[in-house]
Amino acid sequence: MTYIEPINQNKLFGLDKFISEMIELYENKKLPSRILLSGQKGIGKSTLSYHLINYILSKNEDHNYDYEKFEINSKNHSFKTILNRSNPNFILIDIDSEKKFIDISQIRNLISNLNKSSFNLKPRFVLIDNIEFLNTNSINALLKILEEPLPNVYFILINNNKKILRTLLSRCINFNISLSNKECLEVASKLLEDKLDKYINKELINYYMTPGNIYNLIVFGKNNDYDLANTDLKHFLKDIIQNKHYKKDNLIRFMIFDFIEFYFNKINLSFSEKISNKYSYFLKKTSDTKRFNLDEESLLTEFNDSILNE
Fold first, then answer.
1. Torsion of CA 96, 99, 104, 110, to 10 degrees
2. In which element (H, E) is residue 128 found?
């Protein structure tokens, strides 16, 4: 299975109506210069952004964007230069794997790059992924750029349905990106070449999961030698808690609480009285842990000991 991520995902699945709307706005010279794409993590917002950017940058190039198939040509010059991080019309800002926040130095470097003269007459794009990781200083610096954006520069901010400052929201036009649970499964199946059942047990797929979640969970399983096709939810939770994958893998850290809630909902009809009494307790503790960014270890250890080992 070839590993795909938004930057190299040539085909766009399930988001036809969203990119069509944005392309129409661009062709009518009405595309906002400050765009906020909001939706669940893994729904395809970043992939959508790369496709929109390629459509615009490849317009007068060989092997330009195929609008009928919603597909990027891998031979296209803009695609290849974005892929190798050398495109002068594209800047990506994202959280570094070794850091907890998008820090002020990244925004300062962005400002410096934008103040330089453009190499050509094409639009320039700034894609800021995972904006929930902007810290206070980086947000304040970013707000100054967004207040008076440079001509022919487009900002696309990716919001994973997290609460963001009103001052940031007010400077952008928000597009809500969503898919139904059925559509998510259809997209995930296409990403896996219609071999979804081969890679993952249906019991591990819940209504919170987006195509990106499902795909990356399968990659996680392969990288850690888990046979997800033959693993049920209870044993999967026990394994990732006991092996502390939530400390090593951001995907698991983001998804672990949804898995816990899904587990409670799944066994709802067969709750023992003892477990039922703990249900509200764990949901509240889970909510507090996410809300106040508390350490997960004590919660997950308690959940494993009190619920999974029952």
1. 0
2. strand 124-128
Please report, in angstroms and rounded to a whole number, the separation of the first and last CA atoms in the chain: 37
235 neighbors 241 (Cβ within 8 angstroms): no
Classify strands 90-93 and 34-38 as parallel, antiparallel or unpaired: unpaired
Q: Judge whether residue 1 has pLDDT over 90.
A: no
Average pLDDT score over residue span 58-71? 97
Dist CA 240 CA 185 (whole Å) = 23
The two three-digit tokens of residue 136, written as one number: 């206070």
Instruction: For residue 217, give the nearest of 242, 180, 245 by alpha carbon.
Output: 245
Tens digit of pLDDT for each residue in 134-155?
988 999 999 999 988 789 999 9
**Side chain identity at 260, as an amino acid letter?**
I
For residue 177, the tally of other CB atoms under 10 A from its CB is 18
Instruction: Please list the helix, strand and coil fractions of the chain in percent, rounded to the nearest 5, in that order.
Output: 55, 10, 35
Amino acid at 243: N
pLDDT beyond 90 at 268: no
Cβ atoms of 256 and 209 within 8 Å: the answer is: no
Q: CA of 20: how far to CAs of 7, 26, 44, 49, 121, in Å?
A: 19, 10, 15, 12, 24
Helix and strand numbers (H, E) in the chain are 14, 5
Q: Which amino acid is at 50?
A: Y
Beta bridge partners of 176: 38
> Is-above-0.70 flag for pTM?
yes
> Which residues does residue 11 pair with via DSSP β-bridges, in sequence order?
71
H-type alpha helices, the chain: 16-27, 45-57, 77-83, 104-114, 136-147, 166-169, 181-191, 196-199, 211-223, 233-242, 245-248, 250-266, 273-291, 297-303
**DSSP class of 66:** B
Phi, psi of 128 (to 5 degrees): -110, 105
- Phi first, then psi, for residue 206 (nearest 5°) are -115, 175
Helix axes 211-223, 181-191, angle to 10 degrees: 50
